[in-house]
Amino acid sequence: MNRQVMLQALASQGDQPWDVCIIGGGATGLGVAVDAASRGFSTLLLEQYDFAKGTSSRSTKLVHGGVRYLQQGNIKLVMEALQERGILRRNAPHLVKDQSFIVPNYKWWEGPYYGLGLKVYDWMSGRLGLGPSRLLSREETLELAPTLDAEGLRGGVLYHDGQFDDARLAISLAMTAASQGGVLLNYCEVSGLVKAGEKVTGVAVYDKISGTPFSVNAKVVINATGIFTDTVLQMDEPGSEPIMAPSQGVHIVLDKHFLPGEAAILVPHTDDGRVLFAVPWHDKIIIGTTDTPVQEVTAEPRALPQEIDFILQQISRYLTKPPSRADIRSVFAGLRPLVKRSGRRTAELSRDHLISVSASGLITVTGGKWTTYRRMAEDTVNTAVARAGLPERPCRTAELMIHGGGEAFAGGRELDFHAPLYYYGSDMPSIQSLAAADTSLGQLLHTRLPYIKAEIIWAAREELCMTVEDALSRRTRALLLDAAAAVECAPLVAELLARELGRDGVWQEEQVLAFKELARGYQV
C-alpha cells in the first residue's frame, strides 16, 4: 500500500459514486472493506487516525469463543465465535496460533465443574477445534506453569484457544482489501455527511496529512467507527439518542519470567465478576482485563491507578512472585464499543453486533469483537446490498486468505512463532532482503526490543505508516511491549521515516516530542 497510489485512485474516481464508502479503519471497518472489495464493489475506506488506532489494537490478543459468554449462557455468540476462530486460524496462519490455557483449581469442585464446561466448549468448536481439553494433576499443572502458587493447588484444566497480534492483523486486512481493489486512507477524517434531500449520498473529508478538504459520493455509507459510533450518528441525526455504553479495559505487560513456558493462565472469576487472563505474547506476558464504565470517549484512553492496582492484586493471588508496579513494562487501555442496554452493568453487556439503517440510508454496525469481525462484515455488506440496490454477489471471505498467509507454511512445515519477522508471513523474505541489501537495516531498534530497522522501512513503503506512533505502536508493537524502550528509540525511528517520507528535521523533532508525550500514558 502506498498513499500516493491510493490518492491517485481516489482522484481517478472523480464524481463517480463509490459502491461502498466505509467510515472507520478498525477491525470492523477493515473487515467490511475486505468483504466489499472482494465481491467486486468499488470500495473506499476512510480512517481519521491510523488503522486500528483505537480499540482494535488494545485487545487481550485472543481469538476465542468466549468462555465468559458460555458461563452467561450466550450459546449463539459462543458457537459463532468458535466457528469464526477456526476460519481466521485457517485464513491467517501467520498471525493466529493455538494457545493452551490452564484454569488452576484450588477447590475440590473446580476440576469437574470447569472440566465439564470446557468439554462443552470443545464440542461446540467441532471440526474447527484447536485441541481437546483435559484435566491436569497438581504435578502436571506446575510443570506447565511453574510460577503458579502451589499452596492449596489441586490441579487444573487445560484447554485451547487462539492467540494473535491484533494490530498486525489489521494491517494485513488493509493490505488484503487493497489487493482486491479497495482504496484505503488513514488520516482522512470524515467531517460530515453529504445528503441529497434526506438521503446520505456521500461524505465530506479532511486529509490531515496534506491539509486538503474534499468530498466523495457513494451509493451507500457505512458507519463502522466503533467507540465513535455516536459521533457519526449525530452527523446524521443531530440530537439522536446515544446507543453506545463504552467500557474501559486495561492490560499490563510484564517480563516473561513471571509466567515462563508456553501456557497461558485463565482466572475464571475475579472480584468484579470478570475473567482474568495472563497470556504469553511476543516474549512478554499480557495480563488483563478490567471493566470500568466511562462517560468520555477518547482516542487515547488512560489506565486509572485503581485499575492497575486491581490487576496486580488479582494476579498476585496466583503467582509465587507477586508483580509490583516497578515490574510493569507497559500498560494500555482500550474502550469496548458495547451497545447500550438500560440498567445493565457493562460486564454483562453482550458482544453481539448490531446493524441498523437510519432513515437517511446510513448503515451503522457496532458491537461485536475481533474474533467475529468477518461475520460482522458479511452481515453488513449483505445489508448494504439489500438497501442500496447493489448487485447480488456472494461473500468470499470464508475462503479468502488474508495478506501474508499464503506462504506462511513453507514446504509444509508449521510456522515458527518464535522466529523473527514471523508475523509478516509471505512478506518476510522481502524484509529480509532489505536487511541483506543494507546490513545496517538488520540492526535492532533497541536492545530490549525484537524489531529491526528494515521493518520501519517496510512499514513506510508498504503499510501506510505515516508517524513514529504508527511505527512503534502498530506496525511494530514496541510501545506495548516496553514503553521506555520505545521512547528511547523514537529518534532513530523518526530519522528512518523521514528519509522514506521526505520529511525534514523539524518534522522529526515534532514526531519525537509527540510520541514521548503519548508514551507517558503507557508508563507507570
Helicity, in percent? 25-40%
Mind describing the biggest β-sheet? 10 strands, mixed
Radius of gyration: 23 Å
Structural class determined from secondary elements: alpha+beta
Number of helices: 16
Number of domains: 3
Shape: globular
CATH topology of the largest domain: FAD/NAD(P)-binding domain
Q: Can you count the beta strands?
A: 19
Contiguous uncertain segments of 5+ residues: 343-350
Mean pLDDT: 92
CATH architecture assignment name of the largest domain? 3-Layer(bba) Sandwich
CATH superfamily of the largest domain: FAD/NAD(P)-binding domain
CATH class of the largest domain: Alpha Beta
Oligomer: single chain
Percent strand equals 15-25%
Distance between the termini: 36 Å
Description:
With about 525 residues, this protein is α+β, with helices and mostly antiparallel strands. The chain has three domains: about 5-55 and about 170-245 and about 350-390, FAD/NAD(P)-binding domain (3-Layer(bba) Sandwich); about 95-165 and about 245-340, D-Amino Acid Oxidase, Chain A, domain 2; about 420-520, Helicase, Ruva Protein, domain 3. About 35% of the residues lie in helices and about 20% in strands. It has 16 helices and 19 strands. Strands 3, 4, 5, 6, 12, 13, 14, 15, 16 and 17 form a ten-stranded mixed sheet that branches. Strands 7-2-1-11-19-18 form a six-stranded mixed sheet, sandwiched between helices. A hairpin with a 4-residue loop joins strand 9 and strand 10. Helix 11 packs across helix 12 and helix 15 (about 485-500) runs antiparallel to helix 16. The protein is globular. Mean pLDDT is about 90; it is low at about 345-350.
